[in-house]
Amino acid sequence: MTISQEITESELPIMKILWEKGELSVREVHDQLLSSKDWAYSTTKTTMDRMAKKGLLDRKNQHNVFLYYPLISKAQGLVKWVRFFADGFLSRSPQEVVAMFTESGTLTRDEAHELHSLLKDDKA
């Protein structure tokens, strides 16, 4: 499976929050981003709407509030990042990077297995 939509550096913190928490409103994501990003609420909303158009997120209306949730798994989102770090910075194979993520607790065993499979199948 080739991951067609790359997650940008500005989108990654949003994805990390949603991977961990599941469905959240823009306000809830924005409040969690305040500790690491000095963004206006409108920037968070615009970024999340753009991510929905890219197919990274979807949203549903619950009691007149849109809740956003990821359409791709953490492993699917990390495929290109792992290749980038493995090749560009660490001079290691992607599989070695996956092993490092697993050992550090960054990924669960299931996530690491999925990422390993995606890297093997990904031709990008």
Describe the structure.
The chain is mainly α. The chain folds into two domains: 12-70, Winged helix-like DNA-binding domain superfamily/Winged helix DNA-binding domain (Arc Repressor Mutant, subunit A); 74-121, no CATH class. Helices cover 59% and strands 10% of the residues. The chain is built from six helices and two strands, in the order H-H-H-E-E-H-H-H. It has helices at 12-21, 26-33, 41-54, 74-90, 94-104, 109-121; strands at 57-62, 65-70. It has a two-stranded antiparallel ribbon. A hairpin with a 2-residue loop joins strand 1 and strand 2. Helix 4 (74-90) packs across helix 6. The longest helix has 17 residues, at 74-90. The radius of gyration is 15 Å and the shape is elongated. The N and C termini lie close together (10 Å). The model has no long low-confidence stretch (mean pLDDT 84).
- Please write the CATH class name of the largest domain: Mainly Alpha
Largest sheet: 2 strands, antiparallel
Classified in CATH, the superfamily of the largest domain is Winged helix-like DNA-binding domain superfamily/Winged helix DNA-binding domain
Work out the strand percent: 5-15%
The CATH architecture of the largest domain comes to: Orthogonal Bundle
User: How would you sum up the global shape?
Assistant: elongated
Low-confidence stretches: none
Question: Class by helix and strand content?
Answer: mainly alpha
Number of strands: 2
CATH fold assignment of the largest domain: Arc Repressor Mutant, subunit A
Instruction: Output the strand order for the largest sheet.
Output: 1-2
- The oligomerization state is single chain
